[in-house]
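Appendix B. Raw example, untouched.
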Amino acid sequence: MTERSTSLAGMSALVTGGGSGIGLAAASALASDGMHVTIMGRSPDRLAAGAEALAAVAADGVEVRTFAGDVSSEDDVAAAVEAAKVDGKLTTCVAAAGDGTLGPVIATSLDEWNRVLGVSLTGVFLTFKHAGAAIAASGGGSMVAVSSVASRLTHRFMAPYAVAKAGVDMLVRSTADELGVAGVRVNAVNPGIIRTDLVAMVTPEDSVGRSYLDNMAIARFGEVEDVAPAIRYLCGPESAMVTGVCLPIDGGHSLRAGPDYGEWARGLYGDAVDGVV
């Protein structure tokens, strides 16, 4: 049996949404195993705090960089890809930036719709477009998107988010099919309910939290540390034959039904939850 190196030393990654949550946890897993990491996000303060946390765990010689920008801006994404290159090369990217909104479809404004899809779907497209080209030119590597269980289960009154994540899954498969010839692998992780800023308002005691837990085989909220090792695996040489995969990390949630945000939506939108405008 041929032994395969699992080292990430000398590799380089761009992590969008890298200032907090799953993105920061993924960046930490990569940096601690020797990969140079550039985290991208919209908040300079959050990026600075994230970079400090990464520096504390990074392996010797690892460079930690930050890039303040918006993944829905093509100019920003293209510039971030250039900033993340080490010795002119990029080997890895993690597309972890995301956004969401709560409300019935019939009460969702076009601005809200465009905002969510701009970050959660178009942002992944732009990341894959520019990072994919750079990784191919560098001799190959890996791209990983942070999708969601919402890509395959309806999240009642979270339609823009769910639609965006369903699009991410197909984008992953399509890009994997196209870029395999260039040595670029493309995969996704599909977390369930994970304790991050995006869902900080959901608790195990409220109606939404209970609707998550009641539909999970492993009935607990996940932590970012449950997701980061899977991203690390998909970025590393151990997964050299894995591409086009959307990996659920959801405590078995995808075996059952999605959560119901109905009680919260009714408090905000009234009769619109019943289809009345």
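End of appendix B.
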